[in-house]
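Annual report, structural modelling task.

Input specification for the FE2/S2 (inorganic) cluster complex:
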Amino acid sequence: APGTMPVALRVNGRALSLELEPRVTLLDALREHAGLTGSKKGCDHGQCGACTVHVDGRRVLSCLTLAVMAQGKAITTIEGLAATADGDLHPMQRAFIAHDGFQCGYCTPGQIMSAAAMLREPWGPADDDVREAMSGNLCRCGAYPGILAAVQEARRSSAAAGQ
Ligand code: FES
Ligand code: FES
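The model returned the following structure:
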């Protein structure tokens, strides 16, 4: 189509060939062109974290990222997070379930993607470290106590597992 260009993305280990306008965000590319609606559009302005995905293992706000700029990188969405060989849930997903880290669930994919990336970042062990690390992920339902408990449990178990 006029005004579009071929964009090759690698999402959850799968190669996607899309035709996109250059201004299309990674979030819209995932949701509207790749059928991956797990990443949520809360604010579309970088203020809520609902759209968080991983790009080359780092957490990124997909509403602030152009799809064309993500070419050649490994993109992981909530749909791909659990894609382990045994088909099991990611430890962070299990922890969110165990600790009631959600109510309506709208913010949850972004919370979990952010928290999973946080496991690889150099934060201290305190609750305040988690609060600061997760401060870009808003929850209208106020599920923060459960989110904090979930993240802390997942951090402890991943540290114990030497990950
Ligand atoms: Fe991206 Fe809110 S939708 S930060
Ligand atoms: Fe409803 Fe967080 S669980 S917005």
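The longest helix spans residues 144-160.
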